[in-house]
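ESCALATION

Customer reports they have been waiting on this structure for their group meeting. Please prioritize. Original submission:
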Amino acid sequence: MRVLRNVLFALIPAALLLGIFALGFLGEPENDPWLNASPLWGPGDPFFAVNPANAHNLADPVLIWRGRPDFEATYTYLVENHYRHNEYGFRDDPVAVPKPPDTIRVLDVGDSSTWGLNLPDRSATYSDQLQALLDARPDGPRYDVVNAGVVGYSSFQGLQLVRHWLDDLDADVVTVYLGNNDPAPGSVRDADRVAATTGPLQEILLHNRFYLLLNKAFLTLRASTIQKARIDLQGQPKNQSRADYYRTSVRVSPRSYEDNLREIVKLVRAEGARPILIKVPMNILWPLRVQPYAEQVLRPDRFWITVKIEPGYLVRQRAGRPACFQGPLEDHPYLCRISSFDLRKAHLPGRHELSRQAADPARSERERLWARHNAAVWRMADGDVAGARTEFEAVAEAAERCGCVEPKQLAWVHYNVGVTRLLQGEREAAFRALVRARATWPFAMSPDYSEAFDRVVRDLDVDWVDGQTLFRQADPEFGGSALIHDWVHPNRRGNAVLARGLAKRLEALEQAPGRP
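Update from on-call: job pushed to the front of the queue and completed.
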């Protein structure tokens, strides 16, 4: 009897603890914004929210973040983006699971370009336009296109998403539109932000409130460790090489981008589905900043730029008004030319003072090139495009020869060469200079990532859609730039080009044995 009593006294506390722990599974703690607000994020991170209740993304130990399920809100970025997430946190309608019979499901994996950032009307996304094209066909199989784009995703996160959701969603085709966020500067590499790789047990525990509390405490401790090792991006040397930048600063390096794409293709094929890679179009005419307002690109200590955007440009353009208060860039829908008013407003040295500095032998070669280049920006603003082009090309050649201009600034010089060539009607020469600017210093989908993409397509013999070529063909005047309403996000017309390209690829797969 005493033994039985001892056993009961031992089991009762354990049973109580298990019962309390079981209560942690009630509700949906995995979707609680407070429990899933990552201490790894802070002010300056695009997914930081002072009030977690306003967060449109939730922290995730594997995906880093994911769309907040069953959530409707307005997210303001350049314009208001009203959206509604489904049960998976995707900007789409609820997904039928199991998949309806005789249906081909297309899963569109991507970043904010897939999600549809700055497209208030969801029907403008390439996923919705692709669905409309496929539905309009008089015959052929029935398709279900799922928009699985998540704002800010890199190829690393896209790989994790495929691992996490592919089996559940039972996709027959997986399209992949990734690469814009990989070269972005990050204080921590994406692969280092992941807390752990989940196994079957942890997959269950992630639905428990008490486990999530412990995990949050662990992440808080981990965040303090990471904070000490964060890269001080402002403290990077000005002459940092592109190789150094890839090694120390980017979220995902070109080599890792290539590895991630290869692994996505491998996983999709292992599930019996067909991968289609989309080569992300580059907006080569966009200045090498996310938001190149005049006050950002006209700094006293930098090589100045000849092109800008103006606040509210996208709202005005959509209302049928000019995007530029002053002169546009040769009828470009979004970009404006830097004016002499902008230069004077920024209190910058005048053209004659810069010409004097450019001829001063007491100054370093870098200082003389800086002054010569920026005097050419004044010349350009005053309407002398031919004279500015001559100076920009001479400065670019001299800077390449002396190696005295840091790559990040040299990219601006090549960019200005491209702009002046474009204004003189030499489009192909202009596009070469603009691509060279991207190759000199990475920005969004840079040439290094495009080359990595090409190797994956060639080596794995994978189906793909050449978004870069399609955009150039649809917009020969600006090299595809008019189809992208900011630095990376296609507008409705650009998404229509992508949708048509994907529809043609799917039709080709229908004709091939065993496809899709």
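Sent to customer with the following note: The chain has 20 helices and eleven strands.
Escalation resolved.
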